[in-house]
Every structure is written in structure tokens, then in C-alpha cells.
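Closing statement on the NAP sub-project.
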Amino acid sequence: MDLGISGKRALVCASSKGLGKGCAEALAAAGVDLVLNARGAEALEATAQDIRDRYQVSVTTVAADVTTDEGQAQVLEAADSPDILVNNAGGPPPGLWSDWDKDDFRAALESNMLTPITLMKSCLPAMIDRGWGRVVNITSQSVKAPIPQLGLSNAARTGLTGYVAGTARQVAQHGVTINNLLPGAHMTDRITSLEDSMMAAQDISREEARAQRFAGIPAGRYGTVEEFGATCAFLCSTHAGYIVAQNILLDGGGINATF
Ligand code: NAP
């Protein structure tokens, strides 16, 4: 399918690895020029060069922490009013409800709510002026079904979801869509480190840890970053202009709910 976005320009935050990288690759395959971002310059440059070589699109890199004011200014300057914005950053640390104080919540809100809101507020006006734009926020299945040990993530991402629900409906009349993608368990470094914790806590092998995870996923496997990226690219395509303010769950059926 021709996604109809060849020649558009995208800012993909937190994209040297994992889900952000999957989104970047799928957009590049559709002919989109990219600004990629991550804190670590080495992996970021390696990903950028690989994408340039394989897809012949322009790729600019910004090595910065996107959750800081300086990092946001840097990515916005490099992207120069992008047509497409993919918001992403690392998730807050796990713990129990009794562990966190106000500063922990402030940090989580800064990373996973205020950073995407700041970038949307900066990028939406030019999208509105052009009469076309796409925003995809990478959030989490925890927005639909809270994960007990991820209370900081549950709180911050739900706040972002409420903001998107209202804002997306104000900008849709200008040809600009905002939607959220909710990963369940996708095969990235983050999943490997979660398996490491299970292996240490239960004294089990990686195969046993993985079997425990798969038992709770009707698809019987982790999702791939390619599947995730393809869904993101479709949401950014010309075909998705009537998909507004949706929360699209990619979890292999893991959340047992009718809707
Ligand atoms: P990942 O494999 O660990 O990749 C994270 C990427 O983001 C890396 O490129 C990392 O590079 C970059 N990054 C992290 N913090 C950043 C920051 N502050 N500024 C700029 N770049 C940053 O993680 P992932 O699995 O793709 O997860 C992406 C997001 O989805 C996270 O918020 C995660 O909590 C959420 N999520 C993932 C899953 C899943 O199944 N994988 C499920 C639910 C939710 P540097 O470290 O070099 O900065």
C-alpha cells in the first residue's frame, strides 16, 4: 500500500532503539525524511546511517535528553515544523504506591506527559497552517489496564491520554490527527531487562521467564518492533485522516476486555 507520505518530514523522539526505531524505519520505508533523537550518540548515529543506507531518505540526528527543556529546543530546531511528530521517551521506574514522593511524580509527569504536550504545542500550529499533520504518542497498555508496579507510568500516561482526547478533537478540523499507540509486550531491550529481573527474582532461566510472559498473551509471543512501526506509519498515512483521538492497543490480546 502506498501510504501517500513520501517527501513528508517527521520528528521521531527516542528512536535509536526499540519502538521508536521501529516507527522511524517504517516511516523511512514510506519515503519520509527523519529527525531522530536519543541520548546516546553512538547508537543513534548507527541507526541513522542504517536507515539512510536502506531507504535513501534524509536523516538528521539530535543526541539529547528529550525530557529536558534544552533537548526539546534542540529537536524542535532540527525538525523545523515537521509534518509528523512521534512522541516517545523512556518509561518511569517500577515500584509500589508507597515508594513514591512528589518529586518522583514530577519526574514522571515531565517525561511522559509534559514532554509530549510541549512538543505537540510547538508543532501543531504549523501543521494547522498547512492543513495536514500527524501526531502519534507512544504510551502503554497501562493506560487501559493499570500495571500495579508501574504507578508512575499509569498516572503520567493517563494524564497525557486525557489531554490528547480533548486536543485531538480541536485540531481535527484542520486535517491534523493525534492518536496514541499502546504497546503491550514488544521485543525490545526494555523487555529483556524485565526478563532479567524475573530471572533474578525467581532463579529461573530466560526460557522459563519468557514462557511465563507468553502464558498471559493470547498471541503466544511478544510483538515485534516492525509490527509496531507499521501501525505507526499507517496512522501517519494519508489513509488515516479519519482516525482521531484513538488509543490503539497492540498487545496480542493480552488485556481481556470486549472493547
Ligand atoms: P527501549 O528499547 O529501551 O528504547 C528506548 C529508546 O528511547 C532508546 O533509543 C533510548 O536511547 C531512547 N530514550 C530513552 N529515554 C530517552 C530520553 N529521555 N531522551 C531521548 N531518548 C531517550 O524502550 P522501548 O521498549 O522501545 O519503549 C519505548 C517506550 O514505550 C517507553 O516509554 C516504554 O516504557 C514504553 N513501553 C514499551 C513497551 C514494550 O513492550 N517495549 C510496553 C509498554 C510501554 P538512549 O537510552 O540512548 O537515550
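Strands lie at 9-12, 33-38, 59-63, 84-87, 133-138, 176-183, 247-250. With this model delivered, the sub-project is considered complete and its resources will be redirected to Aim 3.
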